[in-house]
Write a structure and sequence with these properties.
Immunoglobulin-like, 2 domains, four-stranded antiparallel sheet, 10% helix, 49% strand, globular
Length: 440
C-alpha cells in the first residue's frame, strides 16, 4: 500500500513539473515568435516570398537561397550560363516549393524551374516562346500552392506575359500593343486574375487580366498608373508604384485608386508598394531616393485604419527589438500579414531580415494611430483618419496663403479648390502636422 502511495505521489509530482515545463516552453516560443531575425548580414539578398511560418526565398546575384528559422540559410540554385538571374525567387505557402529562373544544365538556358524542398531537386519548365540571350522564361508571381506561375517569356525580340499550370502548361498572354512588351507580375489564388504591365512606348502601364482579358488600371482621373507588385487572394486589391504622383499606391476594384502618400515626396524621394497580405488590408513598401542604394530608404507598413507608418517605428511600437536594422526595403509579406522579409542596413552593412509579428499585430493595430488622409489626390471629399481628437484644420496654397479653414470634421469637402498642390495643416491630439494635398 505504501509503495502504491509513493508511486502515485511521484507520478503526481512528475505531472506537475511537466505542466510547468510545458508552460515555460510555450511562453518561450511565444516570446521568440515576436522578434526580428537577421537572415543574412553582408551582401544584398532580395527576398521574393515569405510563408506564414517564416520561411524565406531570395536571390543574391545569380544565386537562389532558402532560409527558415530552424535550418538557417541554404543555397539551392544558380543561373550559371553567364546570363543574369532575372525575376523573383518565390515560395509556396507550405514551404515545399521554390520557383526561380535558374539554368537548366541540359540546355544551358535559364528558365522557370521548381525546387522540391524535401528532395532538394529542380524540375525545369522551359517556356512557350524562344530563347533570347540565354533565357526563355522568367518567374515573377505564383499562387499559394505553387500550381500557377506567371512571368515573362520571349517571342521574337519582345517579352510577353506568360502563365503556367500543370494541366495546361504554358500560355502566351500576349501583348495588346504590337511591337511592345508585357509581363505578368502577380496572380491571385485561383488564377482568374493576373496583374502586370503593358509597355506603351516608354512607360510600363499597369494592367489586369480577368479570365484572360486585359484592361488598364487607372487613377481617379482615368490616368494610367504604373507597375503592380502585389495582389490580394481574391484579386480585387492590387498594389504598386505610380510615376505620375511618385507614390506607392493601393488600387481596389470597388474603391479605386489611392495613393499612399509621404510628406517628403519629390522627384528625389519617391515610393512604391511591394506586397500586400492575402486579405488586401496590409501593404508594405518603401520611400527612397532613386539615386541611392535600394536598401537605404525608409520602409513602411500601411492599413486603411493607421495610414502609412515607418516600419521601424511600427516594430518598435510593438516592443520588438529591431536588432539595430534599418528596414529600408521590405519586399515580401506572408499571407496572414504576420511575417515581413526584406533588405536593410545594420551597422552600415547591407542585411536581409525577417520580422515576425505573430501574436502582436492583431492586438496592436487597434492601438497604433497615424494621422493620414485619403484619397490623395482628391476630387471632392477628403477623409482624415488616425486621431482621437481633431482640433483644427487649415489649408494653405504653396505661396503660404490660407485658402480654407473648414470645420473640424473627419470629412472635408474640397471641391471648390482649384487643381494643384496644397498644404493641409492639422492639429490633432495636441500635435500639429503638415500633409501635402493634391487637388484634382
Amino acid at each position: 500500500m505504501q509503495r502504491i502511495f509513493k508511486s502515485m505521489l511521484m507520478k503526481s509530482i512528475c505531472n506537475f513539473y511537466l505542466k510547468i515545463l510545458g508552460t515555460l516552453l510555450l511562453c518561450s516560443q511565444m516570446m521568440n515568435a515576436q522578434q526580428v531575425y537577421t537572415v543574412v548580414s553582408g551582401g544584398l539578398y532580395y527576398p521574393g516570398g515569405v510563408t506564414n511560418d517564416g520561411a524565406v526565398s531570395m536571390n543574391r546575384g545569380n544565386e537562389v537561397y532558402y532560409w527558415n528559422p530552424t535550418n538557417g540559410l541554404i543555397q539551392i540554385g544558380t543561373a550559371n550560363n553567364g546570363v543574369n538571374l532575372a525575376g523573383k525567387s518565390l515560395i509556396s505557402q507550405d514551404g515545399s516549393k521554390i520557383v526561380a529562373g535558374v539554368t537548366n544544365s541540359g540546355t544551358n538556358v535559364n528558365e522557370v524551374s521548381v525546387y522540391d524542398v524535401s528532395t532538394a531537386t529542380w524540375t525545369h519548365l522551359g517556356g512557350p516562346g524562344n530563347v533570347l540571350d540565354g533565357s526563355i522564361s522568367t518567374p515573377w508571381g505564383m499562387n499559394p500552392d505553387g500550381n500557377i506561375i506567371v512571368g515573362l517569356g520571349w517571342f521574337g525580340a519582345f517579352p510577353h506575359a506568360i502563365k503556367w499550370t500543370p494541366t495546361d502548361g504554358w500560355t502566351d498572354m500576349g501583348s495588346t500593343l504590337p511591337g511592345n512588351g508585357s509581363r505578368a507580375n502577380v496572380v491571385n489564388d485561383d488564377g482568374t486574375i493576373i496583374a502586370g504591365w503593358q509597355d506603351n512606348v516608354f512607360l510600363r502601364e499597369a494592367v489586369r487580366w480577368v479570365n484572360g482579358v486585359q484592361a488598364y488600371l487607372t487613377d481617379t482621373d482615368g490616368n494610367h498608373i504604373n507597375e503592380p507588385s502585389g495582389i490580394s487572394a481574391d484579386g480585387k486589391t492590387i498594389v504598386g508604384y505610380n510615376d505620375t504622383d511618385l507614390s506607392a499606391y493601393v488600387w481596389n476594384e470597388t474603391t479605386g485608386y489611392q495613393a499612399i502618400t509621404h510628406p517628403n515626396t519629390s522627384s528625389n524621394f519617391r515610393g512604391g508598394s511591394t506586397a500586400v497580405s492575402a486579405d488586401g488590408k496590409t501593404v508594405i513598401g518603401y520611400y527612397r531616393s532613386p539615386f541611392g542604394i535600394p536598401v537605404g530608404g525608409e520602409g513602411f507598413i500601411w492599413t486603411q485604419e493607421t495610414g502609412r507608418i515607418e516600419l521601424n517605428q511600427y516594430v518598435e511600437s510593438l516592443g520588438i527589438d529591431t536588432q539595430g536594422i534599418k528596414f529600408g526595403l521590405p519586399l515580401a509579406i506572408s499571407r496572414d500579414g504576420t511575417k515581413i522579409a526584406g533588405a536593410g542596413i545594420q551597422s552600415g552593412v547591407p542585411t536581409t531580415f525577417m520580422i515576425d509579428l505573430s501574436g502582436t499585430m492583431a492586438t496592436q493595430n487597434a492601438n497604433i494611430k497615424k494621422l493620414s488622409i485619403y484619397p490623395n489626390p482628391v476630387k471632392d471629399v477628403l477623409n482624415i483618419t488616425g486621431f482621437n481628437k481633431l482640433e483644427n484644420i487649415e489649408i494653405f496654397n504653396m505661396a503660404g496663403q490660407r485658402v480654407k479653414s473648414p470645420a473640424t470634421s473627419d470629412k472635408i469637402n474640397v471641391s471648390e479648390l482649384s487643381k494643384g498642390t496644397y498644404i493641409l495643416r492639422l492639429t490633432a491630439d495636441g500635435k500639429k502636422q503638415n500633409i501635402k494635398l493634391i487637388k484634382e
